[in-house]
Amino acid sequence: MAVEVILPRVDMDMETGKVSRWHAAEGEAVAKGQLLFEIETAKAAMDIEAPASGTLRGVAAREGDELPVGAIVGWICNDGEAPPARAAAAPVGSAVAAPAGPVKVLGDSTPTSLPAARGATATPKARRLAREAGLDVASLAGSGPQGRVQALDVERARGVGAAKSGAPRAHGEWLRRGAGPPFVFLHGFGAELGVWKPLVQRLDPSRGALALDMPGHGLSPPPPDDVTLDALVAAVEAALAAEGVARFHLVGHSLGGAVAAMLAARLGERVFSLTLVAPAGLGPEIDGAFMDGFLRATSVASLRPWLRRLARDPETLGAGLAEATLKRRAERGLGPGQARIAAALMPDGVQAIDVRPALAAFGGPARVVFGAEDAIIPPRHAVGLPGAVAVHVLAGVGHNPQLEARAEMARILSDQAAAGDARVR
Prior knowledge:
alpha/beta, Dihydrolipoamide Transferase, 4-stranded antiparallel β-sheet
């Protein structure tokens, strides 16, 4: 039986929401829990997961459409099943109802099967990002249909501007605005900031969350030719300064964990709490074969076996991870920069960085979380840490606890937030 996909209520006072991005297209197979689409409200932007496994059909909302809470935006159907013949809700303020039939949605642009709104030169998200960056959207070259400016075009312009100013910084995106010190999230090697979105949805909705793309990842500028861990730390610190974030709770995964440890030691009491998830830099061993295979892969068939090593249950990573990774790598030219990072920090399949002294120097609440079945970085690296550092080893979990054990990670971060806030009162 077909399962309806609706626009959910994510804020208590939310009446409408904007479909800002689709992660899957009409006719694409999706798995339950896979990121399906992104919505924006006046307070937040977050990804919505697929409610069931099957094929996405009857997509009836375009990127940029604002719809009332509860509107049906599509259906998850079984093989050979068609979506019910039922009209979808019309976009708010629209005189013409959205079509009930399939509408293929591509990227961050208006679907090719529907005409773009008259006078629309940029997507709503692109306009917002341009305003925040102080850019004139009319001056940007658009990569969308008929030259429409997309979010990626704005971020590229921001990256170029930062590089020309001599102060390259990591790209940041507020996953949620909130009161008090926010969480700042740093992803691991080969990932990007979107990996944190499912976990953020489980955290206190009043708490802000800022995720950053590490240099050479996502929408951030490439790393310098002579990559160092200090250079990555400096890029993150510059991003926080640009976003006006003075005090925060810091969370880092894998390579981002190493960066987080160094940054926490540098900033001291500005970091209310530190949570390292399967962090690099606590020991020499790492799965060098994975690093090499990940960087060399040029097809879904060659990349997918390596990605399966990232989780005890690969389905927690999303069915389309291999396709999305290769697409981003090609579109944004990420391969060379990531290869330089691996060669500099993990040469010959060994970790050449040590963040134990930095972790010992941090005086605030600190926790290290490993999955007991991590195939990339051995959980035994948590042995011998300072007694003040709490260690969690989660059974049945691999290298990505933030995706594989979201409920437990949300509880850990909630405890960290409480301890960190209390420390500075």
